[in-house]
Design a protein that fits this description.
- This protein is mainly beta.
- It has a single domain, classed as Fumarylacetoacetate hydrolase, domain 2 (Alpha-Beta Complex).
- The protein has four helices and 17 strands.
- Strands 3, 4, 5, 7, 8, 10, 11 and 14 form an eight-stranded mixed β-sheet that branches.
- The two termini are 22 Å apart.
- This is Fumarylacetoacetate hydrolase family protein.
């Protein structure tokens, strides 16, 4: 089973629970409809990795604030990349089929280290840089569904296991990437940097 690092300790998430279409401008940039209810999908443990690999020319990155769950509460915070095979996803969406082939493939949940968090969730924001250029930015206010709403909705129909990860959705600025690109993801509480994760595409 794949593991993540939380406060310098290795833990094993049973799953990664992802929130889709959670930022208005991202919905618009992909030409999607705004959903009436929260979009939720899963990535299995086999999708988890701490390495960013080149998958295909149509695979895009989606930077996200990620939450580590313990006792059904947010215990930790980190930065992650939801990798998506865009061409495959578009074909599946057109046919009304599930997204697993485009979203849940091996190494599609790229997760950095997690640290404890018990601060003001309303002050959270993220930045993603690629080759020193800021390509994605988001904060709490831009989220359609707030983190505590996510946990409540998920808990209505799915059991949380300690160590599970919730990926809270991606803002505008997603795109493709290539071997050698350097990614730096940052999560802040206000002006205080909580965690920084870096990857070089292999």
């Amino acid at each position: 089973m794949n593991q993540i690092k939380f406060n310098n300790t290795q833990i094993t998430p049973s799953k990664v629970i992802c929130i889709g279409r959670n930022y208005v401008e991202h919905i618009e940039e992909l030409g999607n409809e705004t959903p009436d209810t929260m979009v939720v999908f899963n990535k299995p443990n086999s999708a988890i990795t701490d390495m960013l690999q080149f998958v295909s020319e149509d695979t895009r990155f989606e930077g996200e604030i990620c939450f580590l769950i313990q006792n059904k509460r947010i215990a930790g915070i980190g930065f992650g990349l939801d990798l998506t095979k865009a061409d495959i996803q578009n074909k599946l969406k057109q046919k009304g089929l599930p997204w697993e082939r485009a979203k849940a493939f091996n190494h599609s949940a790229v997760l950095g280290e997690f640290v404890s968090f018990n601060g003001d969730i309303r002050q959270l924001r993220m930045e993603l840089y690629i080759n020193d250029d800021l390509v994605q930015f988001a904060d709490y206010e831009l989220m359609i569904y707030k983190p505590l709403d996510m946990l409540s909705e998920i808990d209505n129909f799915m059991s949380f296991e300690d160590g599970d990860i919730v990926m809270s959705g991606t803002p505008k600025g997603v795109g493709n990437y290539k071997i050698g690109d350097k990614f730096v993801g940052k999560v802040y509480e206000g002006e205080r940097l909580l965690i920084e994760s870096t990857w070089t595409v292999q």
